[in-house]
Amino acid sequence: MCINCIRNQVDITEDIPKTSTIHFCRNCERYLQPPAYWVRCELESRELLAICLKRLKGLNKVKLLDAGFIWTEPHSRRIKLKLMIQKEVFSSTILQQIFEVEFVVTYHQCDDCHRVMAKNTWQSMVQVRQKVDHKRTFLYLEQLIIKHGVHKETINIKECKEGIDFYYGSKTHALRMVEFLSSIAPLKSKASEQLISKDIHSGTSNYKYSYSIEIAPLCKDDLICLPPKVAKSLGSISPMVLCYRIGNSVHLMDVNTLNVTEVTSHTYWRAPFQSLASSKQLVEYYVLDVEPCGPVRGKFVLADIQVARSQDVGRNDTTYFARSHLGAILNPGDSVMGYDIASSNFNSEAFDVLDHSSLPDVILVKKAYPSHRKKNKARSWGLRQLRKEEEDMAPRKQEQSKQQQDFEMFLRDLEEDPELRSTINIYKTSQGKPQDAGQAAEGEESDFEEEDFPEIMIDELQGGIDDDLEL
C-alpha cells in the first residue's frame, strides 16, 4: 500500500478524544490537575500544557513528538492544542499524523474557595501588630509580601487599626507566613489553639490556630535613647543613637562617632525600649556650612555642619552646630531634616538620667528636597497593593487623611532611599513618563530643582501596575 492509502484506511488518532474539558476556579484562578490538586498557571504555559495532556486518554498508546498551543481568545473559554504523534501500523511501517484537540474550560469551585464561602472558613490566622502611630511599617511589609508571593495562600486579609490579619485554610501556610515575617522584622510571636469539634469514635479533633505577632515599635530614622544597661551591653555605645536600618534586627548608629551596633530580635525583647522621637517630629533645617571631620564608614562621612531652622532664615540669626553622618551628601544651601533636641520635651526615664549639658542641640537625619516637593508632579511609577477587607466601621475622615499622609511619606522614602526601593518591586503607570537611566532632568523646571534628587529611573521599574496581578 502507498502512503496515501495507508493514511486513508488507518487513523492512529481514533483512540484519542478530540474534545475534552478542563476545570478552572475563578476565585483563585487555578486549574484542576487530577485527581484533586489545583495548580496556578498562566495561559499557554508549560504547566497548563502538562495538565491538558494528562486529560487525554489513549495518548500513552502512541509516541508524542510535539505539542503546542493554538491561539484562542482569552475570554472564549477554549484551549486548543496541536499534537504530532507516531505509531507503528504495520510491520516496519510507522505512520506520523498531526491533529488538533479542543478543551472547554468549565468553571468549578475548588475546595479552598468553597470553605471560604462557608462558615468557619479559616483554620489558621496570623495577627500582625505594631504599636506605633503610623502605617509605614505595614506599607513596607505589604510590598515585601507581594514581591515574594507569600500572600497567594491567604483566603482573606483584613486590615484593622493597629495591623493586619491574615487568614489561611491550613496551619502550614500560616507557619510559612510567621517564618517569613520573622526573617524581615524583629518580632515576638505567640501561638494558641481553639477546639472546634471532636470525634470520640475516631479520636480526631478539629482546631483553629492563631498566631499573634508583635513587631518591635521601632522604625527607620527613629531617635532612640537606650537605657544605661542596654547601652553598656552593646559595647558601651552612646545612649543617644539613630536607627538607620531595620531588618530581622535593629541597626543603630551614634552620629557623633559613626559607631554602629546591631540589636537582635532576641536581645531586644529581653529588654525592650521605645523610640524617643519618630520621623513625624522631624524639623527642616537650612545648611550653612559643612566641614568634614575625617572618619568614614561606608556611605557615611562624619562632618561638622552649621544649620539654621528653615522658618528662621531671614528672621533671626540663630544657628546650630551639629556633628552628623551626612557629610558626603550635604552642601551649603541644601535642606536637611533633623530632631530639635534643645527645644523638645521628651517623656523618657532613660533620657532624664542623661547629662543634658553634653547633648547636641540638633541631630540631623536625612537630606530633604523641598523645591521638588512643591511642584507636585505626577509620579510615573506606582505600587501594587493587597486586596484587604476593612473593619466593619468605616474609618473617619481624619483617619483617612492620616493614612493618605502615611502612604505619601512612604513613597517619599522610596524616592529618597535607593537601598530601600531595591528590596521591593516598583511598577510603571500611565500618569507620566519615567526617566531614562542615562538622562538627567532637563527643561525649564530643572533649574529650580535639586540637582541630586534621586529620581527613579526607567530601568528600576517592572511591568504595568495592573498586568497579571494575582492578589
Automatic annotation (TrEMBL):
Principal subcellular localization: cytoplasm
Domain Nmd3 N-terminal, residue spans: 1-215
GO molecular function, one term: ribosomal large subunit binding
Record has Cytoplasm as a keyword: yes
Region (Disordered): 421-453
Biased composition (Polar residues): 422-433
InterPro entries recorded: Nmd3, Nmd3_N, NMD_SH3, OB_NMD3
Subcellular location: Cytoplasm; Nucleus
Keywords, ordered alphabetically: Cytoplasm, Nucleus, Protein transport, Transport
Domain 60S ribosomal export protein NMD3 OB-fold: 282-367
UniProt superkingdom: Eukaryota
Function of the protein: Acts as an adapter for the XPO1/CRM1-mediated export of the 60S ribosomal subunit.
Protein name per the record: 60S ribosomal export protein NMD3
